[in-house]
User: Which sequence fits this backbone?
């Protein structure tokens, strides 16, 4: 029973990690750049949802939609103001430095806007905190809701990529940006919407996870590390790998904490990154990219 409880908790946590990793992989596939401000977009979305739900007394669904829409719009604005001007440089260092700096700016903005309300903010639970029983396993009802919603979001995103025009444009640009430009695709616009969709996925994961955690301006980096570890494990250019990597990481954290040492939960992501980089640099499902000369 203890194992099944840890597994259920690990799957719930892993589903959130998978959503975070999904946003990282979306941007990386299109631009070859890891968005180091992705965790701060997650944090910002959580605070926006808290403001809509707690301060303005809107429903949870309304708070979710508002948070996703605002995070999407903010990401588009950041793309035009910060990322697009640096696209002309072939060297990625200016872009990476800009993203790291942006993460600190967003953290400072969050601390200025919400920090006066306390170091940590609690998001009201969606459902009764009473545990429910599934096949002899006691799980929190909130975890069931989060897991189901996260799986639904993953399915919707995969359908969007496969069957919509925008999704096909994103895949074509990710596969070969030069070829996509030659056939008439507006690559700059594809990049813009890629950033926006990546942030929107982060927003969904933040609002789903908000009732299970304490919101604070510094939480973005630690969650980014978890999502990045999941993306690296699955393969930075693989969307199915991001999902698998998140679930594996969530299970690994919970089982290691439950059977070995609770302290391992905090270092598991770093261990995963370290081992994958040594033994399988392309990840479990990633494809090796050829280098242009």
Assistant:
């Amino acid at each position: 029973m203890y194992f099944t409880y840890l597994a259920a908790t690990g799957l719930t946590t892993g589903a959130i990690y998978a959503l975070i990793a999904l946003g990282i992989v979306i941007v990386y596939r299109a631009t070859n750049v890891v968005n180091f401000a992705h965790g701060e977009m997650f944090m910002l979305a959580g605070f926006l949802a808290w403001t809509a739900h707690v301060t303005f007394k809107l429903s949870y669904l309304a708070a979710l939609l508002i948070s996703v829409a605002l995070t999407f719009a903010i990401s588009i604005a950041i793309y035009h103001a910060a990322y697009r001007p640096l696209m002309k440089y072939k060297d990625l260092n200016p872009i990476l430095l800009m993203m790291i700096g942006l993460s600190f700016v967003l953290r400072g903005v969050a601390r200025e806007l919400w920090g006066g309300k306390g170091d940590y903010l609690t998001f009201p639970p969606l459902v009764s905190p009473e545990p429910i029983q599934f096949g002899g396993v006691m799980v929190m009802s909130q975890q069931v809701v989060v897991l189901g919603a996260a799986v639904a979001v993953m399915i919707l995103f995969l359908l969007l990529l496969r069957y919509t025009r925008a999704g096909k444009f994103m895949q074509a640009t990710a596969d070969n940006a030069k070829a996509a430009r030659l056939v008439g695709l507006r690559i700059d616009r594809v990049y813009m919407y890629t950033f926006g969709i990546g942030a929107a996925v982060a927003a969904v994961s933040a609002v789903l996870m908000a009732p299970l955690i304490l919101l604070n301006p510094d939480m973005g980096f630690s969650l980014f590390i978890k999502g990045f570890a999941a993306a690296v494990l699955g393969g930075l250019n693989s969307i199915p790998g991001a999902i698998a990597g998140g679930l594996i990481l969530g299970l690994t954290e919970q089982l290691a904490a439950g059977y070995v040492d609770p302290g391992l939960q905090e270092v598991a992501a770093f261990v995963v990154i370290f081992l994958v980089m040594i033994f399988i640099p392309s990840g479990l499902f990633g494809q090796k990219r050829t280098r242009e000369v």
